[in-house]
Amino acid sequence: QVRLVESGGGVVRPGGSLRLSCEASQSIFRHYSMSWYRQAPEEQRELVARITGSGDTMYGDSVKGRFTISRDNAKATVYLQMNSLKPEDTAVYYCHITGSEWWGQGTQVTVAS
Asked: What are phi and psi of 35, to 5 degrees?
C-alpha cells in the first residue's frame, strides 16, 4: 500500500508563489515517475508536471516557465514550485505515481485578489 500526502496549498494573490510537497510512504519512491495534476471545478483533471526517477521533467503548456517540479529521493518527496500564479491556476492539485492507481488526497490552491 502506497500513501501520498500533499501539503502546501493555500490562498495567494495573483503573481504570488506557493510550493507544494508530496511525501510518499514507501522507500522505493526513487524508482517511480511522479506527476502533479490539477482539477478545477467542472473541469477535467489535467497534467501539470512530471518528473522521472532520473530527474527528467516535462510540463503542461499552461505552466511552462512558471512552475518547477523537483524531487528529493532521500525524503521520498516531490515538490511543485509555483511562481507567477494566475487566477486560472486555481484548482485542487493532486500528486500521482505515474501510470499507477495511487493518488494523493489533493490540496487546494486558490489564486485571488
From this structure: -130, 155
Total Cβ atoms within 10 A of residue 94: 21
Q: Which of 64, 87, 91, 111 has the alpha carbon at shortest distance from 6?
A: 91
Q: In this model, does residue 11 exceed pLDDT 90?
A: yes
Buried b (16+ CB within 10 A) or exposed e, 50-65: bbeeeeeeebeeebee
Taking a C-beta distance cutoff of 8 angstroms, is the pair 101, 94 a contact?
no
Q: Where are the alpha helices (DSSP H) in the chain?
A: none
Give the torsion sign (CA, 32, 38, 44, 49): negative
Residue whose C-alpha cell reads 492507481 in the numeric block: 101
Q: What are phi and psi of 33, to 5 degrees?
A: -75, 135
Half-sphere exposure of 29 (CA within 13 A, CB side): 22
User: Is residue 80 within 8 Å of 88, Cβ to Cβ?
Assistant: no
Dump pLDDT digits (tens) for 57-109: 999 999 999 999 999 998 999 999 999 999 999 999 999 999 899 999 999 99
